[in-house]
Automatic annotation (TrEMBL), chain A:
InterPro entries: Cyt_c-like_dom_sf (IPR036909), Haem-bd (IPR025992). This is Heme-binding protein. GO terms for molecular function: electron transfer activity; heme binding. Residues 12-147 form the Haem-binding domain.
UniProtKB/TrEMBL annotation, chain B:
This is Uncharacterized protein DUF3347. PROSITE patterns: PROKAR_LIPOPROTEIN. It comes from the Bacteria. Residues 27-46 are annotated as: Disordered. InterPro entries: DUF3347. Residues 63-152 form the DUF3347 domain. It holds the Pfam family DUF3347.
Length: 151, 196
């Protein structure tokens, strides 16, 4: 029993200590000229849907949830956002070559089609980020047209 | 009773600390400019030296060799082996250095290599369905690379009209073995072009 108590105390102390490790917040006020929305004439509904469902992890500006203030959740988010931006950063769209734009657009279509994106762990809390079948069809049609125009 | 009091005390302390830290976090929104992760060191001096050129050709041949090994793994429906070989290919791609080519070719090659590396890396960590999706674009990248670098090997560009609206790949053999379907439709496809 005493042993369990020690473990519980150690866990509590560890939990307190890790609160002191800050993360670098992914926040930026300015939308750069290279942004996907600036570069392309995106219809308002699709624009809004992409902002809500994708931009938290695929741009330089995250709308953080309350639990991002608490470790270890903050680390988890930081990792996800970094990985998301490495794959695709909508803010840096115009810095991609047309070859890479094509690759990215193709992946967007595939992943929305298969439901891999937005991720389940994200939509679990961000219920408004869930794409309905109608949303999916609209986005996929738009992205497909954009991809064809690049080829 | 004493323990309970102590526990509550510690909890309160913890809460205070959490709040303090989170306030500090709130003020910390500088330095979020995109880190220079996309920066490349491609500014090696243009050494017009034959040894370097041979070396470059060797690198391109190494990429091709890794690509064919990967293709064979996909033909054999071998997900694990394809992962391994995707990683090998990614390493070969990264060690490619286009500095001996003309400016136009250089930027085209760097672009191809960057895209291909990303696909090879994905192949190294995906299931076989995804591996094949990435292999499609990777094949286009490698074909475009060969158009610039050339190769000693005779290549066959093969084409399967059924996979994803029509898809090509490269092979060293004329005989068609389909990497997109493997055993489920091994013979789907035809030679659409010979290179060399």
């Amino acid at each position: 029993m005493k042993f369990l108590k020690i473990i519980a105390w150690l866990a509590l102390v560890a939990l307190i200590v890790i609160q002191f490790f800050p993360i670098t917040l992914n926040e930026s006020d300015a939308v750069p000229q290279s942004d996907f929305m600036v570069e392309n004439q995106v219809p308002a509904t699709i624009k809004n849907q992409l902002q809500v469902s994708c931009y938290d992890c695929h741009s330089n500006n995250t709308d953080y949830p309350w639990y991002s203030k608490i470790q270890p959740a903050a680390w988890y988010l930081e990792d996800h956002i970094q990985a998301g931006k490495d794959e695709l950063n909508f803010n840096e769209w115009d810095t991609y070559s047309s070859r890479r734009k094509n690759s990215k657009l193709r992946s967007i279509i595939k992943q929305i089609e298969s439901g891999e994106m937005p991720m389940d762990s994200y939509t679990l809390i961000h219920r408004d980020a869930i794409l309905s079948d109608e949303d999916k069809r609209m986005i996929i049609d738009y992205i497909t047209a954009l991809k064809d125009s690049l080829e | 009773m004493k323990t309970v009091k102590r526990t509550i005390g510690i909890m309160a302390l913890a809460a205070t600390m959490v709040l303090t830290v989170s306030c500090k976090d709130g003020n910390k929104n500088e330095s979020t400019a995109p880190m220079s992760s996309e920066m490349h060191q491609e500014s090696m001096d243009d050494k017009k030296d034959m040894a370097m050129n041979d070396n470059q050709d060797a690198k391109a041949e190494a990429i091709l060799k890794d690509y064919f090994n990967l293709k064979d793994a996909l033909v054999g429906d071998d997900n694990g082996k394809a992962k391994e070989l995707g990683n090998t290919l990614a390493q070969s791609l990264k060690s490619f250095d286009a500095s001996n080519y003309s400016d136009n070719e250089k930027s085209e090659l760097n672009d191809i290599i960057e895209d291909a590396t990303e696909h090879a890396e994905h192949i190294s960590e995906s299931d076989i369905k995804h591996q094949r999706e990435h292999f499609k674009i990777l094949s286009k990248d490698v074909t475009d690379m060969v158009a610039i670098t050339g190769t000693q090997v005779k290549l066959y560009e093969q084409y399967c009209p059924m996979y994803d609206g029509g898809t090509a790949w490269l092979s060293k053999e004329e005989n068609v073995l389909n990497p997109y379907y493997g055993s489920s439709m091994l013979r789907c496809g035809k030679v659409q072009r010979e290179i060399n």
